[in-house]
Design goal:
mainly alpha
């Protein structure tokens, strides 16, 4: 057994897991930070852009010859997609179906239809629980090429 190959690929795998985690969590941080400065009407476009980046990352992992785990970008892209749908639905409802007297009496604030974290956090929890229930994580992890496929013959 040659320890240098296994150590090299263990470090490589851990580095890719860290990279996927940073990209996935970074997308959520970008959304929450940009919510401070961007109108709630245009915030779903930022979320959709982050979702596109995560979807491309998951697709790159799936198409890669070397196996690595792309579960986190895949699940976070689903979280952001559901978040976009909910944000757009709230914006449509808020703009067209709330009577004007609710805005006049101060019970509804026209400039803040929703608080971003109160959408992203519950959607994240729901999608992750759904994925655990449906065992999507196991099906994706099984489809990843084994690490030994990247090593020369007899390396492990």
């Amino acid at each position: 057994m040659n320890g240098s190959y296994s150590d090299k690929f263990n470090v490589w795998g851990i580095g890719l897991l860290l990279t996927n985690w940073l990209i996935s969590v970074g997308a959520v941080v970008v959304i929450l930070f940009s919510a401070q400065f961007i109108s709630k009407v245009f915030l779903p476009a930022v979320v959709l852009a982050c979702q596109f980046v995560l979807m491309r990352r998951a697709r790159a992992g799936r198409d890669s010859k070397k196996g690595y785990c792309y579960v986190l970008p895949f699940l976070m892209s689903r979280v952001l997609f559901v978040t976009v749908i909910i944000m757009v639905a709230i914006n449509i409802y808020y703009m067209g179906f709330i009577p004007d007297e609710k805005f006049a009496d101060g019970s509804v604030n026209r400039s803040i239809p929703y608080i971003t974290i109160l959408i992203v956090a519950p959607v994240s929890s729901a999608v992750m629980l759904w994925a655990m229930y449906r065992a999507i994580i196991c099906r994706i992890a099984i489809s990843v090429v084994p690490l030994t496929a990247c090593l020369p013959n007899g390396a492990l």
